[in-house]
């Protein structure tokens, strides 16, 4: 509050002159529909940037075309439907119960009125499914998640973990929303540790049925989407218990998935033996009805075991093509990576929205300025650029990386190639955790970058932040997922030394490990020319070197500590190191994809804009980790200084094309409906909101 006082003391004459200029500027911005940049390069920038700072003229159309997804047509269909149905748009203020009903009606409208059938695409064209999810999530994130629960989690578990008999019986009902369902994995005592689940499914050979039981309160299924109000079925993950003829009497075959009806198809009453409670009001996503499920000897037919990876015969014999519980468990979870792919992709969508709102506002908003001159756009402050420009560059980086992930996932679903399965598994875990963590932090940065107006609910940061926050936890907690990436890297590292092959995403390790082991080059460590620093080879080598170093070091540390602490203790002792390794690897993959995307862009000015963003992404990351590079003399002091200066310069250059870069996301109007992002008439839009 009152921070202006004392900063720029002005005479009365100066202040009335300024006020008049401001009014003229505002008026002219109302007349021009385009976003107006400040009339001249403000002093703040002129001082910090050299004469090299010429504005790049970008062909916005070419850039937009390059960024356009393959499935814009179906996204347009989603937007058109919701634009034509104001009654299905989520108001700013809505109660939990109304929001849940609205969300269900939105989904019904999408499927039964607009005729968009996402389930077909879960099965046959995942790229299209993710495009629908992105569009639907921009209407209301609760709707995106509700759709994900129905089709990707409940539907996906039936078609991916079950066999033909399940698909034949359930596909149409899931598709048309007659069979609304849940994915009941998490329990009160166990979330991340899925192998620790306690719910049981005991085979009764006399009746040819499984009996589902919640043995104690800790095994109550918790947080289950669609359970509190709308679900009729649940895929329940439970330990399969088979009777045996030995002294133990039963055998625990590990966690399997079962279809359990939870509500009556006609009356919607909860079925006998099933108890359902509401998980209540949440921090966000209140359009989704999360509930808790308890089972008391609920009987289901043997056929309800989703038996793709393990089956039980009429006489209680267990069969599986996979030899061990661990392998079956791995295969089961492996089929569920689609949810993670979707979240990574959707999270980039949220980042695009929030960066767009904050950048458009920052271009328009003016505060302070040199004496006797108009106020400057807040995006001309170096601090604002440092908050938002690396974020804009990262948004592009993650866009290309997640598009790649979605393509690989689709290819994997078609080919079932074993190496690709392993690649997609680690890549989806890594990108999901890395991108969602970044977006969650950026939402707060964007809110702050828009000052007080960023705090008005109508400007969307609050709901975006609250709804998106849980992306970091569900479909696998980010810290846990990063460990899977690190474990995978270590496994491949070990295999490499045993003569094994490295899959595509990891193949860079072979070369960079050799570079790492041969020590940094003292000559190149001093190179500081702009051409060198902007050379993709230097950037990628630096990222790869860091990953190889982290990998080599952590492998040695683990070996040392495991002698005294055992495997679990050694892992825990090195945990932060392992997480840094995983992040470093993911950043390396992201940069490689960005560099490729720049190279493939056909139009020169669009390519140049992307190259600016890509360089900013790379150098900003190197600068943020400069201590690591300096410690091992990979970068000499003069080079570190040059990297810092160039990063600042690139921030400014990207600021100069920020409007074009943001416009190229081509977000539909309803997405940027935040009044502060409404370009030229922002303030009049905004005053209307509060009733003037
Ligand atoms: C809104 C919402 C919707 C959900 N929907 C569903 C649903 O439809 N179906 C369903 O089955 N589940 C659902 N979940 C549950 C969700 O998947 C779990 O919350 C998630 O898997 C994390 O488990 P947890 O909550 O038990 O956290 P925990 O595993 O207890 O984690 C708590 C903390 O401990 C840390 N931690 C845990 N293990 C480790 C480790 N090995 N190393 C280091 N740190 C560790 C984590 O990083 C985290 O910070 C939902 C949850 C929410 C909130």
Automatic annotation (TrEMBL):
Query: Residue limits of the Acyl-CoA oxidase C-terminal domain?
Result: 535-679
Domain annotation Acyl-CoA oxidase/dehydrogenase middle: ranges:
182-298
One CC-aspect GO term: peroxisome
Is this entry keyworded Nucleus? no
Domain Acyl-CoA oxidase C-alpha1 residues, every copy = 334-489
Q: Which InterPro entries match?
A: ACO (IPR034171), ACOX_C_alpha1 (IPR055060), Acyl-CoA_Oxase/DH_mid-dom (IPR006091), Acyl-CoA_Oxase/DH_mid-dom_sf (IPR046373), Acyl-CoA_oxidase (IPR012258), Acyl-CoA_oxidase_C (IPR002655), AcylCo_DH-like_C (IPR036250), AcylCoA_DH/oxidase_NM_dom_sf (IPR009100)
User: By what name is this protein known?
Assistant: Acyl-coenzyme A oxidase
The lineage is: Eukaryota, Viridiplantae, Streptophyta, Embryophyta, Tracheophyta
């Amino acid at each position: 509050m009152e921070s202006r006082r004392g900063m720029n003391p002005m005479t009365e004459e100066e202040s009335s002159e300024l006020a008049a200029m401001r009014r003229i500027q505002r008026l002219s911005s109302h007349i021009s529909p385009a976003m107006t940049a400040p009339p001249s390069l403000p002093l703040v920038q002129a001082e910090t940037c050299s004469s090299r700072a010429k504005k790049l003229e970008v062909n916005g159309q070419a850039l937009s075309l390059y960024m356009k997804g393959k499935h814009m047509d179906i996204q347009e269909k989603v937007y058109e439907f919701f634009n034509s149905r104001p009654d299905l748009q989520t108001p700013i203020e809505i109660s939990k119960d109304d929001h849940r009903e609205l969300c269900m009606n939105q989904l019904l409208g999408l499927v039964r009125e607009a005729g968009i059938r996402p389930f077909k695409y879960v099965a046959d064209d995942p790229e299209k499914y993710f495009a629908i999810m992105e569009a639907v999530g921009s209407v209301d994130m609760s709707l995106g998640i509700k759709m994900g629960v129905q089709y990707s989690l409940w539907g996906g578990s039936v078609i991916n973990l079950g066999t033909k008999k399940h698909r034949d019986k359930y596909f149409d009902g899931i598709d048309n929303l007659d069979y609304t369902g849940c994915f009941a994995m998490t329990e009160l005592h166990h979330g991340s540790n899925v192998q620790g689940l306690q719910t049981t499914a005991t085979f009764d050979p006399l009746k040819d049925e499984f009996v589902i039981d919640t043995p104690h309160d800790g095994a109550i299924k918790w947080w289950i989407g669609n359970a509190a109000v709308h679900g009729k079925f649940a895929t329940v993950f439970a330990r399969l218990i088979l009777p045996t003829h030995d002294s133990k009497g039963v055998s625990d075959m590990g966690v399997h998935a079962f279809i359990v009806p939870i509500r009556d198809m006609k009356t919607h009453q909860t079925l006998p033996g099933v108890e359902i409670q509401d998980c209540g009001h949440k921090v966000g996503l209140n359009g989704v009805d999360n509930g808790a499920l308890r089972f008391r000897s609920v009987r289901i037919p043997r056929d309800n075991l989703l038996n793709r990876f393990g089956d039980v015969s009429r006489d209680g014999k267990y069969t599986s093509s996979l030899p061990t519980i661990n392998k079956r468990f791995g295969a089961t979870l492996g089929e569920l990576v689609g949810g993670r792919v979707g979240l990574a992709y959707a999270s980039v969508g949220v980042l695009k929205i929030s960066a767009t709102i904050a950048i458009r506002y920052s271009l328009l908003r003016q505060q302070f300025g040199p004496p006797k001159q108009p106020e400057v756009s807040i995006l001309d402050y170096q601090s604002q650029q440092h908050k938002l420009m690396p974020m804009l560059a990262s948004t592009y980086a993650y866009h290309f990386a997640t598009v790649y992930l979605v393509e690989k996932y689709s290819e994997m679903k078609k080919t079932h190639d074993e190496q690709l399965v392993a690649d997609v598994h680690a890549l989806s875990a890594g990108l999901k955790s890395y991108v969602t963590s970044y977006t969650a932090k950026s939402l707060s940065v964007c809110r702050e970058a828009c000052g007080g107006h960023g705090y008005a609910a109508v400007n969307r940061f609050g709901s975006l932040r609250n709804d998106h926050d849980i992306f970091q936890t569900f479909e696998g907690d980010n810290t846990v997922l990063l460990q899977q990436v690190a474990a995978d890297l270590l496994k491949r590292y070990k295999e490499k030394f045993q003569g094994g092959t490295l899959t595509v995403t990891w193949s860079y390790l072979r070369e960079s490990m050799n570079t790492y082991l041969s020590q940094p080059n003292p000559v190149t460590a001093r190179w500081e020319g702009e051409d060198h620093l902007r050379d993709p080879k230097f950037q990628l080598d630096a990222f790869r070197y860091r990953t190889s170093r982290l990998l080599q070091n952590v492998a040695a540390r683990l070996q040392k500590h495991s002698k005294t602490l055992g495997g679990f203790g050694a892992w825990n002792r090195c945990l932060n190191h392992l997480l840094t390794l995983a992040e470093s690897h993911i950043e390396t993959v992201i940069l490689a994809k960005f560099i490729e995307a720049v190279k493939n862009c056909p139009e020169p000015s669009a390519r140049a804009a992307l190259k600016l963003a890509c360089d900013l992404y790379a150098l900003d990351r190197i600068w943020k980790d400069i201590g690591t590079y300096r410690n091992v003399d990979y970068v000499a002091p003069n080079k570190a200084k040059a990297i810092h200066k160039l990063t600042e310069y690139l921030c400014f250059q990207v600021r100069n094309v920020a409007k074009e870069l943001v416009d190229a996301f081509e977000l539909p109007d309803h997405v940027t409906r935040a009044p502060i992002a409404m370009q030229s008439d922002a303030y009049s839009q905004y005053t209307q909101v509060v009733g003037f």
